[in-house]
Amino acid sequence: MTDPALSGDTTSATVRDTPVAGSAAQSRSSADETRPRQRARRKHRGAAVIWAVLAWLAALVFFFPVLWMVLTAFKYERAAYTDPPTLWFSPTLEQFQAVLASGVGTTLLNSAFATLVSTTCVLVLGIPAAFALSLRPVKKTKDVLFFFLSTKMLPIVAVIVPLYVIVNRIGLLDNIWTLIILYTGMNLPIAIWMMRSFFLEVPAELLEAASMDGASLWTAVRRVILPLVSPGIAATALICVIFSWNEFFFAVNLTAVRAQTAPVSLVGFITGEGLFWARLSAASTLAALPVVIAGWVAQNKLVRGLSFGAIK
Amino acid sequence: MRKSLRIYASLVAVACLALSGCAGAGALGSSAAKTVTIAMVSNPQMQDAIKLASHFEERHPGIDLKFVSLSENEARAKITVSTAMQSGQFDVVMVSNYETRMWAENGWLRDLSGYAANTPGYDVGDFVPSIRESLSYRGDMYSMPFYGESSFLMYRKDLFRKAGITMPEHPTWQQITSYAKKLHEPGNHVGICLRGKPGWGEVLAPLDTVINTFGGRWYDENWNARLDSPAVKRAVGFYVNLVRKYGEPSAATTGFAECGTQFSQGNAAMWYDATSAVSIVENPKSSRVADEVGYVAAPTVKTEHSNWLYTWSLGIPTASDNPDAAWEFISWVTSKDYIKLVGRKLGWSRVPPGSRMSTYEIPQYRKVSEDYAALTLQALRRADPENPTVKPVPYSGAQFLQIPEFQDLGTRVSQQISAAIAGKKSVAAALEQAQQYAEAVGKTYQEQP
Amino acid sequence: MTKHSTLSRAEGWRRRAPLLPALLFTILVTQVPFLLTVYYSTHSWNLVRPGSWEFVGLQNYLYVFRDSQFREVAMNTVILIVGTVLISALLGLGLALLLNRSFRGRGVVRTLLITPFLITPVAGALLWKTAMFDPVFGIVNFVLQPFGVGNFAWVSQFPLATVMVDLIWRWTPFMMLLILAGLQSMPEDVLEAGRVDGAGPIALFRELTLPHLRRFIELGVVLGAIYLVNTFGAIYMMTSGGPGVESANLPFYIYQRAFLGFEVGQAAAMGVVTVAATIVIAMLALRLIFKSFMGAQEAA
């Protein structure tokens, strides 16, 4: 919807940079080239088939482990761990029933809540910040950006003990809001960084023009800027969702019962008595499913958002 | 422009309010009932307890049970940190005979003797004596055993029959080596499965009993580290050699659970491990060899017996807000009635073993456990954590040392052993490094008056 | 004069206002705990020995620098990050090129390819350890059987490499997505012009495509490295850092010091050293990257 003409600018920049493109304007008569071109096209088609096969192969190799996990989730425990691996088996829903009965539902809800609220917080805090670092830049923009990114470099393990002490002191251990605050802090730097590059895509004149018309800054931002950058915001949100849903370290150390999230609940399926691989597969499948589906559905947004952001 | 600021400021304010407002409420939904939060290790017996919890809640409508079950390492880290920091996060914690005494001494656990005495029919005298002793500090019990285990040797009767070998009732490690050699058929099954995974609760448990029975010790009476002594070198060399030559592939990442899978899938002829392993190998749902498993005492060399002693037990941290409700749960789940409940509802083979003598009197249980019950009880009784090896030691514990540094020391030493099992290091080099770690810890005890 | 400066100050604050909540929040959440870490690092504190709290100055740091395992683990961390990022970027580039042509089922192929990036890391690591690399029951050995590989124990023989396989499997799709985005933003007429100019496909790729993709690849490398610094779940699930500390990285090692050794002071000192080292390396790397990003932005 917002395929902006702006990128044309960068395009020409790229062209100018590259030595080969110098004589692009010259065009030649193509009459005597028709025949070799056809041959080339046929050869091309052969090559295209090979490339397609290669792509399919790669996709299957990458997807196979996931497929195997899902298949295993429908097996009985005895069929899950065999040598050679069992491909044909009578499927059962026993594992899923067992997993659901063990209260995975609550952990999925916790994960969903922490993910959605923290992502909302990231957007609420991050959009204005990205704005202030791009369209109406503050002084020392570079330093601020650097600071945000450097916090991302901080290995979180370095702060886990103090965090535990603080959270314990204020009585927020095993509380979902602790995770929400930490996930917001964890995703905010990257989100600001990403969204800033989307904002930079917007020509400053657009904002000026809208302000000129007497619209307040807020209205101008909402009416003009936000629609333009919305694919980027969606991509950012998706990235935040993926990382908060899958987060393990904070969750495993700071939650126990009430605020346990889905990835941590998987650890509980590793019992001292063996791996129960089929049951674990069922639990893994359930834990991974929401984000996988979200990612599948929104993959176009993701590609577009990422490219939109990286051009600049 | 000012308007935009105001809108934005109010947005932030709302967000903050939401944060702080809901923070107090914690998780969604809460009831008037008292909540007892229980942290446990996700072993099958505990999973059964979770399944049966509704029976408890029916009889105690005022108490709401919440369980967190985690894998052993995770549970241990979490429980230790939350107890040491007095977080009050858990009302009941699952600990073992490793922690109980030390934590009792630190004042982190409640004395449960008074509670037990005031609970009719609870019968502390019924607990297996060695287990009860290992959970007592100055004569009082600070945690109640949920189940107890020792060690023994499991073997495949069918494979031994085929090879024409008779397993003696009290084998020596030399005999075991020769059997392992004979029965080692890579591709079909290995000679013996032994833990090699790093972790003081993993490879060190069987290895320490081997060290003990070879006459080795971690420290002498004056806290001089002795991991470089000839006896320890012989013992570790023996263990590493055995598992490398006739043991499972990938031994350095194989622990109790992995050995359980290997053995019950028919991929090993012998397995030296915990008595609680019966719940894996005897379970026809997960085991392909359930009918063919024989049991004998833990192999020895210089000592008469070589058993470890371990128990998962339940205690109440002093920081817990409702110890009375917590005791209600503990006294239920470690009672004689609970054992019968498990037998009736889930099957007698799933009864938590090794905690109470009376368990071994129940006819139905005797019937399902006739192959191993007597041996388990015997092993539990013979385990002597105070005198684990030939020579005297300044610590107590058979497969661990009951000092707070051991979790760390044991883990580091176990990593060295694991590296030797993987063939990345010689036994001598691994023990040299281990000796250094042990010396550093020993020094802190020598400095104490 | 005064009026002018107050005006600009007001304007300055108006510009700063939208930034402040995010800035304050980030400072509060990340810097306060870190200051506490620095404070702890000057104390001896063993959680399981009550009364062990004591000021020891820089003794913990001395211990860290004398600890040969710490150095080994630091090296592992570098190998893990650099290896994973480079291999993922290369594979991602290859896959993106494959996907940049239209063929039957391209959408499906892309969907399948991005899945590893979406799978919960804990589940992914378990999957590789148990279903793929298990010496007896694993798929990898099953597939390699015809080539004479028996019950090879991948995870214990090559612990760091197997962890990296899991990470590469996860991050290649991410790199692919980014690079694919770059390819798709590449104007066709430029390529056409190059083609008309008589450039072969390899020359086209080297002279036109690659320079255009540079920023996308750099972005992927930076983002990948940032997340890989904190790798924890994969190691925790697959190898527990072993055998020895052969597959432990700094986060895992520090976690062990804190939650297994309960040596909070030492763990804090290790954390501080790690943060310092990371920031120095990151600054150098970022300057490079930033030059290309900021440079482009300022030029535009």
TrEMBL record, chain A:
One of its GO terms (cellular component) is plasma membrane. Belongs to the binding-protein-dependent transport system permease family. PROSITE patterns: ABC_TM1. Its main location: membrane. Residues 1-40 are annotated as: Disordered. It comes from Halopolyspora algeriensis. GO terms for biological process: transmembrane transport. It holds the Pfam family BPD_transp_1. InterPro entries: BP-dep_ABC_trans_perm, MetI-like, MetI-like_sf. The chain crosses the membrane at residues 47-71, 112-133, 145-164, 176-195, 224-245, 276-298. It comes from the Bacteria. SUPFAM superfamilies: MetI-like. Keywords: Cell membrane, Membrane, Transmembrane, Transmembrane helix, Transport. It is a multi-pass membrane protein. Residues 108-298 form the ABC transmembrane type-1 domain. Gene3D superfamilies: MetI-like. This is Carbohydrate ABC transporter membrane protein 2 (CUT1 family). It is found in: Cell membrane. The keyword Transmembrane applies. The keyword Cell membrane applies.
From TrEMBL, chain B:
It comes from the Bacteria. Coiled coil: none annotated. Gene3D superfamilies: Periplasmic binding protein-like II. InterPro entries: Bact_solute-bd_prot1, SBP. The keyword DNA-binding does not apply. It holds the Pfam family SBP_bac_1. Residues 1-25 form the signal peptide. The keyword Metal-binding does not apply. Keywords: Signal. PANTHER family: ARABINOSE-BINDING PROTEIN-RELATED, DIACETYLCHITOBIOSE BINDING PROTEIN DASA. This is Carbohydrate ABC transporter substrate-binding protein (CUT1 family). The lineage of its organism: Bacteria, Bacillati, Actinomycetota, Actinomycetes, Actinomycetes incertae sedis.
UniProtKB/TrEMBL annotation, chain C:
GO terms for cellular component: plasma membrane. Coiled coil: none annotated. Its main location: membrane. The keyword Plastid does not apply. Keywords: Cell membrane, Membrane, Transmembrane, Transmembrane helix, Transport. PANTHER family: BLR7065 PROTEIN, INTEGRAL MEMBRANE SUGAR TRANSPORT PROTEIN. Belongs to the binding-protein-dependent transport system permease family. This is Carbohydrate ABC transporter membrane protein 1 (CUT1 family).
